[in-house]
Amino acid sequence: MPELPEVEVVRAGLEPVVTGAAITGVEVIEPRSLRRHDGDVADFESRLIGRRIRAAVRRGKFLWLPLEPQHGLPPVAVLAHLGMSGQLLLRDQEAPADRLLRVRMTLDSPAHGALAVAFVDQRIFGSLAIDPLLPTRDGAPGGRGDPAPLVPAQVAHIARDPLDPAFEDERFRRALIAKRTGIKRALLDQTLISGIGNIYADEALWAAQLHYDRPTARLTKPVVVRLLAELRHVLERALADGGTSFDAQYVNVNGASGYFSQRLNAYGRQGEPCPRCGTPIVRESFMNRSSHFCPVCQRRARRARSAGPAA
To answer: What is the C-alpha to C-alpha distance for residues 210 and 299, in angstroms, rounded to an integer?
Structure first.
C-alpha cells in the first residue's frame, strides 16, 4: 500500500494543476470505486460537475481535493484513498482511456487548460468519495497543502504524520508508551501516527537500531527522540527520491516510478548483508506481513523477569 512519501508525491503533482480548476465532467466506470461515498454514482457525478477545486491536501496516506464553498451548503472535498494499487494520473482530455480506469474527471485548469484526472486501480481496493469537511480538533491546518483547519470526516480519526508541523512530539511519546505493545505495531497504528506502513517502519527501526517487537512501555525519552528523527529522515529521503516503487503500481501523476527502493537498508533485503555490520538481514512473519531487521544491530529486547513468589 502506498505510504506517506508515495501519496505526497501524488499530492504535490496534482497541486499546481488542480488548484482553482473547474470540474467540467465526471464519469464513473466502476461503481465499486465509490464504496466510501455516501450516495450512488449519479449523486457523485452531479454534485461535482461545475464545482471548483480549492487545493490538494494530504494527511498520512489520505489525499483530498477541497471544493470551493457553495452558498448554503457545508464544505466538502473529494476524498481519495489509493488502497493497494490506486493511481491518480493526469491525462489530456483526448487521450484514450487507461485500461484499468475506474473514475475520470475532466477539468478546466487556470494554469494548464483542459485536462483529465484518471483514477486507475487494478485491484479496486482504493476509492473516491465526496466527504464533509469538519473543523480540526487542534485548530491547526487539516493537512499538507491547505492552511484551512478542516479535515474530511473519514480522516478525522487519523493522527497527524511526523512531517506535519502540527505534530506534537511529546504528546506522541506519551501515547506511544501508553500503548503497551510492540514498537512496530504501534507505528502502524494510524490513530497514533499516520503515513507509516511496513516499508518505512522497517527502515526507521533499522536506522534507530530498534527491534520491531521492543515493548513501547520500556522506551526512554532519548530512544523515542531518536526514533522520530530517523522516521523523519527516512520519509524525507524517500520523498526526495519520488517514493518507493517495486512495480508499475506505485507511480506519480505522470506515471513515473520512484527510486527509493535503491536506498533500502532492511526492507526486502533478507539474506543480504546489513549495510552497518554485515550480518545477513532476517525476515520474520508479522501481522500477516513481514518484518525485516538485522539480528545484531537490532537485538530483541530481553523480557522483564516476573516477580517470584513471596517468601
So the answer is: 7
SS (H, E, C) 212-261: CCCEHHHCCHHHHHHHHHHHHHHHHHHHHCCCCCCCCCCECCCCCECCHH
CA 52 to CA 20: how far, in whole Å? 6
Among 256, 194, 15, smallest CA distance to 117 is for 15
CA distances from 29 to 88, 101, 102, 130 (A): 15, 7, 5, 17
Ordered structural domains, the chain, with CATH: 4-154 (3.20.190.10), 169-293 (1.10.8.50)
Structure confidence at residue 309 as a pLDDT band (50, 70, 90): very low
Residue 68: all three cell numbers together: 470551493
In the three-class reduction of DSSP (H, G, I as helix; E, B as strand; rest coil), residue 164 is classed as: coil
Residue-wise pLDDT for 124-141, tens only, equals: 999 999 999 999 999 999
Dihedral of the alpha carbons of 22, 27, 31, 32, in degrees to the nearest 10: -60
How far apart, in whole angstroms, are the C-alpha atoms of residue 130 and residue 200?
Answer: 30
Question: Is residue 64 a contact partner of residue 152, using CB atoms and an 8 Å limit?
Answer: yes
Query: At 284, which helix (H) or strand (E)?
Result: strand 282-286
Q: Write out the catalytic residue numbers.
A: 2-3, 61, 289
